[in-house]
């Protein structure tokens, strides 16, 4: 809670100064209860600290190609500072292919191999929230 309050102050200061407000996007595929709760908690935290957030929901039947196109669009979208693709994904989608498609600079989960390697070498960047 202390960190959230500190972040809220910093975001408010950025906003007052006319600076860009951080924007997190989350891709949620399917109806896994745990995933829905996790993503909703992330979006709630964004709201509490003043970040912008976008939830992108897809049905279990989404094709891997469609999901990868959306990831590429998020990689190129300058209004999005970072995003997560909530796992698990449906069995017909290759999670490794999806992870590799995420721009490491926008990989908030820290799962991209570049970010995992940076973590192992103690290089600053996104790191996984859980080991």
Could you describe the 3D structure shown?
With 131 residues, the chain is α/β, with parallel strands linked by helices. The chain has a three-stranded parallel beta sheet, covered by helices on one side. The two termini are 22 Å apart. 15% of the residues are buried. The protein is 46% helix and 14% strand. The chain is globular and about 45 Å long. The chain has five helices and three strands, in the order αβαβαβαα.
Which keywords apply here?
3 strands, 131 residues, alpha/beta, 3-stranded parallel β-sheet
Concise overview:
46% of the residues lie in helices and 14% in strands. It is an alpha/beta fold and 131 residues long. The chain has a three-stranded parallel beta sheet with strand order 2-1-3, with helices on one face.
């Amino acid at each position: 809670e202390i960190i959230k309050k500190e972040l809220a102050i910093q975001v408010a200061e950025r906003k007052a100064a006319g600076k860009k407000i951080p924007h997190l996007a989350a891709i949620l595929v399917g109806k896994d209860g745990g995933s829905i709760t996790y993503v909703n908690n992330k979006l709630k935290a964004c709201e509490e600290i003043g970040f912008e957030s976008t939830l992108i929901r897809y049905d279990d039947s989404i094709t891997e190609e469609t999901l990868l196109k959306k990831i590429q669009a998020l990689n190129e979208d300058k209004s999005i500072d970072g995003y997560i693709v909530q796992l698990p994904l449906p069995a017909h989608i290759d999670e490794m292919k999806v992870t590799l498609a995420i721009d490491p600079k926008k990989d908030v989960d820290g799962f991209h191999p570049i970010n995992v390697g940076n973590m192992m070498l103690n290089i600053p960047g996104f790191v996984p929230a859980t080991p």
